[in-house]
Design goal:
Layout: H1 4-21, H2 38-49, H3 53-65, H4 72-82
Length: 85
């Protein structure tokens, strides 16, 4: 497990990455995972597989506002279902 001071940096970095990579809500319905940019795919894949569930819970409101899955289970489904490689 990362040191506590490193965990404290994780949430601000994640929030900033979400803001930078998803500056506006996605269209409805959301695009296929494969149609997202590589950076967007990497971020969502990392969140889907992250071992600290609190990180996704902390991000849920912003993800929902963007039209993205807002639970780890839903992210895993979106990432896994839509991956083409």
């Amino acid at each position: 497990m990362p040191a506590p001071h490193r965990l404290g940096l994780l949430w601000p970095r994640t929030r900033r990455a979400i803001q930078e990579l998803f500056p506006a809500p996605l269209p409805d319905p959301a695009p296929r995972f494969a149609d997202l940019t590589e950076a967007q795919q990497q971020l969502l894949g990392d969140l889907a597989g992250h071992r600290h569930a609190w990180l996704i819970r902390s991000s849920a409101g912003r993800l929902r506002d963007l039209g993205l899955p807002d639970t780890q289970e839903a992210l895993r489904s979106y990432v896994g279902t839509h991956r083409t490689a």
